[in-house]
C-alpha cells in the first residue's frame, strides 16, 4: 500500500464511527468526505463494538499518533489528508499541578510527542 491509495478507494470500506452527535465537528468533517459510515451504538470503547464489529474484514478507523500503538493487531496508516486537526490536552486539578508524578507524566508525554513529531511530518508540538 503506497501513495496510490485514494479517498475513493478508502470509502469502499466500512468506516467506524462513534455514536451519532458525540463529536459533531469530527462527524461533519468525515461525513463530508464519505467516511463515518458505520456508527457504533456505544460511547465507551469496546473492542467487540469497534474493531470486532467487522471481524476479519478491512475497515477504516481513525487514530491519533498518541494512540496508534494501542491496537492488538497491525494497522496501516493511509497516506490521506483529511480536513481535520486534533490534539491532546492534559487537564489536572490545581492541587496536583506541582506534584512530582504530574511533572513526570508531562515529561513522558513531551518525550513521546517529540518522537512522534520526528516520525510523522504532520505532528506539530505546541508546548
Question: Outline of this structure?
Answer:
The protein has 127 residues and is mainly α. The chain contains three helices and two strands. Strands 1-2 form a two-stranded parallel ribbon.
Question: What this model shows, in words?
Answer:
A two-stranded parallel sheet has the order 1-2. The chain has helices at residues 7-10, 24-32, 100-119, and strands spanning 16-17, 38-39. α2 links the parallel β1 and β2 (38-39). 26% of the residues lie in helices and 3% in strands.
Category by helix and strand content: mainly alpha
Low-pLDDT windows of residues: none
Total count of helical runs of at least 4 residues:
3
| Helix/strand order | HEHEH
Enumerate the strands of the largest sheet in spatial order, edge to edge or round the barrel. Answer: 1-2
- Residues in helices, as a percent range: 25-40%
How many beta-strand elements? 2
Q: For the CA atoms, what is the radius of gyration?
A: 17 Å
Shape: globular
**β-strand amount:** under 5%
Give the biggest beta sheet: 2 strands, parallel
Overall structural domain count = 2
Chain-wise SSE layout:
Elements: H1 7-10, E1 16-17, H2 24-32, E2 38-39, H3 100-119
Parallel strand pairs: 1-2
Give keywords.
127 residues; mainly alpha; two-stranded parallel sheet; 3 helices
Amino acid at each position: 500500500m503506497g501513495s496510490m491509495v485514494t479517498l475513493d478507494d478508502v470509502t469502499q470500506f466500512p468506516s467506524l464511527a462513534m455514536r451519532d452527535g458525540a463529536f459533531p465537528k469530527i462527524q461533519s468533517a468525515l461525513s463530508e468526505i464519505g467516511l463515518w459510515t458505520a456508527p457504533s451504538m456505544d460511547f465507551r470503547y469496546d473492542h467487540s463494538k469497534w474493531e470486532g464489529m467487522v471481524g476479519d474484514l478491512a475497515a477504516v478507523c481513525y487514530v491519533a499518533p498518541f494512540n496508534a500503538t494501542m491496537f492488538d493487531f497491525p494497522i496501516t496508516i493511509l497516506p490521506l489528508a483529511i480536513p481535520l486537526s486534533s490534539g491532546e490536552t492534559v487537564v489536572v486539578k490545581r492541587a496536583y499541578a506541582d506534584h512530582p508524578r504530574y511533572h513526570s507524566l508531562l515529561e513522558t508525554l513531551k518525550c513521546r510527542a517529540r518522537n512522534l513529531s520526528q516520525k510523522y511530518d504532520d505532528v506539530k508540538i505546541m508546548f
